[in-house]
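We now fix the convention by which a protein and its fold are recorded. These numbers are not coordinates but entries in a learned vocabulary of local backbone shapes. A record is reproduced here so that you can trace the correspondence yourselves:
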Amino acid sequence: MKIASGALAFLLYACGVMTLLLASGCDADKKKEAAALPPPLVGVMAVEARDVPITLTYVGQTEGSRAVEVRAQVSGILMKRAYKEGQYVKQGDLLFEIEPDTYKAAVQQAQGVMAQAQAKFTQARQDLNRVRPLYARNAVSQKDRDDAQASFNSAKADLDAAKAALNEAEIKLGYAYVTAPVSGYASQEYRTVGNLITAGSQDGSLLTVVNQVNPIYANFSVPSPQFMRLRALAVQKRLVEDGITAQISLADGTVYDKKGTITFIDKQVNPGTSVVASRAEFENPDLFVLPGQFVRVTISGLVLKNAILVPQQAVIQTQKGSMVVVVKDGKAEMRPVDLGDNYGDSFLLNKGLEPGERIVIEGGNKAVPGQPVRVEEAKAPQSAPLPDQPVSPEEGAPHAGTPASSGTGATSGTAPSSAAPAGATLSGKAE
């Protein structure tokens, strides 16, 4: 059966209209159904500004407080090594012996010269003592007195020179017995027994190195962005120091029980690595910590004033960045936030919220921006840092003050102390 083209067009139009009417009816039903549902229930908490103790953690490496090169001061054949390589030695312990006979002979010769000079001096002094009273009674001429005085002065000068020569000879003899300049671990020998040692030679005079390990240093580096962030916070008086101390933990997790102090913070940024070199010093009386160990340096004693902590569960990651749901006038509102460091189950807030504002920490996925919500007060996560607890970054998480994509964040590096000397503060300000 053939249908006229006009009739067919009318039929298709009618079907389209019917479809639109049905769809509109369905949408209206859905809106009515949605309107009939009660507002979703969400858990909220009010953000508060509070003082937050901050702990900074960095990767560092230990180093002896002094690494002293032991060099020969006299030349000669190396006759003896008196220590075991790698052994702990005390200051003054014998390390090496350089053939001493030549220097013993020089001492004996100097002693003989001095004895002669002493005898001449004694005779000249006696002569002068005899002439002086005679000259006072005009029994001898002035020339006789002047000659006696000159002989005395010459004898005294010769005696002084002889004493100096003897002292020099004894010093050189003492140098033949090379002792430890400081207490510490003596490294390997650089010259073996039987070799000719040449004093004054850069290569030929080095015998060994002694590393002093009490006290011991822990060197670490502060990323320059973090360092500048700390300085900025200090200038704003938001970052204050409250008895800064340092502590180290070893590679096996052992925490060293001695607290240290920050003794050095460089005043320049390394152009190659973009870090600020820093150093903590620790007493090491039991020699527990060895040089060259990789350690984790933890800096405590900084307080961030009026800080706001945002629970991680309240943060929504979007293509536009980090967001939180704020409840205002009974309605949900998406709020962009600038987050800083990650501490436990919370983030430090850089900006985006004001104290007293209520954010959703439970049921945020149910809230629709601009739509009403029902609220109930919720408690912050139990693991969130409390104001009286030190805050420490999680393993592998950003550290305080280092700018990241959102504002602040950090990588392992370095930091300073209030117990340190002038100029060695974490904030970078000179005391």
